[in-house]
Amino acid sequence: MKKYKLIVTAIIAIGVILIGTSTPITNLYKSTNLLNKGFNKIEDNKDSTKGESKDAKEPSNHKKYLICIDPGHQQKGDPNAEPVGPGAPYQKARVSSGATGVATKKPEYILNLEASVVLKHILEGKGYDVIMTRESHDVNISNSERAILANEKNADMVIRVHADSLDNSSKTGASILIPEKGGKYTSNIYEESNKCAELVKKSMQESGIQLNGIFQRGDLTGFNWSKVPAILVEMGFLSNYNEDQMMSNPEYQRKLMQSVADGVEDYFTTK
Length: 271
Ligand SMILES: [Zn+2]
Known about the structure:
Layout: H1 2-50, H2 54-62, E1 66-71, E2 78-83, E3 91-95, H3 108-125, E4 129-132, H4 143-152, E5 157-164, E6 174-179, H5 187-206, E7 211-217, H6 221-224, E8 230-237, H7 241-248, H8 250-270
Parallel strand pairs: 1-4, 1-5, 5-8, 6-7
Antiparallel strand pairs: 2-3, 6-8
Helix pairs in contact: 3-8, 5-8
The structure holds zinc ion (ZN).
């Protein structure tokens, strides 16, 4: 009986020793791995100096660009104020409720999300990574918060989707808004935003979309908080009876968003 107890104790002791040493073994394995990685790095560097390494070419050929789509507005505007730029003395409403279609009676926030979802699918089909600032209407995300989200994700381009409205119901056509060139908060992102806007403009014109032009804006919170390039597409005028109906037509939405996506693709391929 004593002998049996001794054997059991010995087995338990061996078990404890094995458990005790398993961590150092894992660590040893990890450090060997690290050593291997370090070794590979040296190898990579050696290869890249030859200028013909496959790895050396990868960053430019295989970089997956991230596009952030911001469907403008939301179900309920938030009139509480936020600064128009980081540290700005001026404040504006966190987010307004947007316009309403004169013919369709459709609120802008619904139209913006409809078109944004179409744009998302087209861009994903082209192989881009896409994030959205909102995918439903019942949210409360201010314009600065939308910009900060894109900053935090380090998006390569932000596309804000809106529709215009004016007292003058005869005014029609799309517009592209970009951050102001000499803007206090936006001078760093002007150049790339403008490049993209020019290519989107060209693409829209080639598709036969009526376009009023590219306009710099220094007063938009969503641009002023952005640290990454951004454009805002005003798809057309909700205050014009025909254009309002046209913008809700799925075929026109697809045509319009295809032209935007093609322009964005031109921007990335010539970057
Ligand atoms: Zn709007």
